[in-house]
């Protein structure tokens, strides 16, 4: 089966991180075991994943929670924002900056930016585009954690 892959979801409160985790957990045939609040294990496509859902609302709280996480290297970090709210995109820069101030710059094999609530962006015709490179990320993926089929959301896994 290979080594477990770890994925951390980072972003301010309300952007849809927990919704995304719960949709991904729905993929698993084996019931997901929660080891401690915010850490979920799923099996998908013959691989074991550990998903870390960071609690908190504001950028400083998220940065603090990530910095104090016992695991520090992740196979993938998903920087999640709400496509319809520019403040949630700006917050990602603040989180990434604060992590470096804590001398804990984000350490992940790959960083992806995830623009969530695509359904709302389409409905309102409002969408703030992230520049992934400026966040140290490889790519930007736009999703609807609420409405996209789970197998499509699974493309976010390493
Ligand atoms: N319309 C829409 N709402 C979403 C989507 N994803 C999450 N939400 C809603 O946004 C709110 C916050 O979601 P939550 O997962 O708790 O955000 P978190 O604080 O980042 O964990 C909830 O009311 C969700 O139902 C989405 O893709 N589309
Ligand atoms: Mg949450």
Description:
The protein is globular. The chain has one domain: 3-Layer(aba) Sandwich (Rossmann fold), CATH 3.40.50.300. It has a seven-stranded mixed beta sheet, sandwiched between helices. The longest helix is centred in the middle third of the chain and has 16 residues, at 86-101. α2 crosses α3. It has 158 residues and is of the alpha/beta class. The two termini are 14 Å apart. It has helices at residues 17-25, 59-67, 86-101, 118-124, 150-153, and strands at residues 5-10, 33-36, 39-44, 47-53, 74-82, 108-116, 139-142. It contains five helices and seven strands; from the N terminus they run βαβββαβαβαβα. The model has no long low-confidence stretch (mean pLDDT 90). Bound molecules: guanosine-5'-diphosphate and magnesium ion. The site of magnesium ion has 3 residues, from α1.
